[in-house]
Amino acid sequence: AILIVAADEGLKPQTKEAIKILEETKTPFVVAINKIDKPDASMEKVKNDLTAAGVLLEGYGGNISYHGISAKTGEGVDDLLDLVLLAADMEDLSYDPDAPARGFVLEAAFDHRRGSEIAVILTDGTLRAGDFIATPSARGKVKILENFLGERARELQPSSPALIIGFETPPAVGETFTAAASAEALPAHIAPEPKERQFPPAFEKGVNGKPEVRLILKSADAGSLEALSMIMRNLPGDRPPTILGETVGDITDGDVKSAIASRAILIGFKTKVNSAAKN
After folding, report:
1. pTM of the model
2. CA–CA dist 241, 268 (Å, integer)
3. Containing H/E element for 214?
4. CA end-to-end span of the chain, whole Å?
5. Per-residue CA distances from 198 to 46, 192, 258, 261, 262 (Å)
6. Tens digit of pLDDT for each residue in 23-52?
7. Is 152 helix (H, G, I), strand (E, B) or coil?
8. Alpha carbon distance 14, 156 (integer Å)
9. CA–CA separation, 166 vs 73, rounded Å?
């Protein structure tokens, strides 16, 4: 992993959260101190902040490599990449090119022209265009395979990020996937097709006569949807809102009809609204 810290701001709460995740998962990492081109940048302050947070850099009592970079000018980026390659060499990583392609789902988004776009990281085997692919909740066929530059690729090898178009339904973020040359060779533990959403009958009053706030959430990608759901479920008050549904994709007339039938508020984040839904 690469832990990025801004040289002009130092450690932020999200930085400390990232450090905690790295420690809990025992993930090797290097530190990139970014924005060194800014006049108020202070490498020493960042180093001291990291030491206080338990991240011991080389020269500061530890063995974690670091380098100052500027994402704006490109300064130090090549040296940082050398550190990443060195760290990878130390891990002695390996893979089997003939094994069934495996990895995990990084993000799931919806494009109204191309359909579900699933970003994955490949961890073993060779992923090829035309492969059948499955996770515990979804399956499909790799119709389009793109590399991290958005270019079409015929095959990709481990450590490669990939964009896949061909899943019948979007898988959940974080799920592992397996690919095979035929549908019969895929694992058999795939979940059944999701049933159509069933909403409870509309009513004005909730528990103890208090009005119930009902929500239907939509977002352009699964990561944003997860964040939106967490925020809504943790709103202050005596009674948190009831989430009736949360899906990735554009807002459709079906979503509006469901909101009307269940007297719910329909919330969309980074989503488009089709013309039927607008009407």
Report:
1. 0.68
2. 16
3. strand 214-219
4. 47
5. 52, 17, 9, 11, 10
6. 999 999 999 999 999 999 999 999 999 999
7. strand
8. 32
9. 38
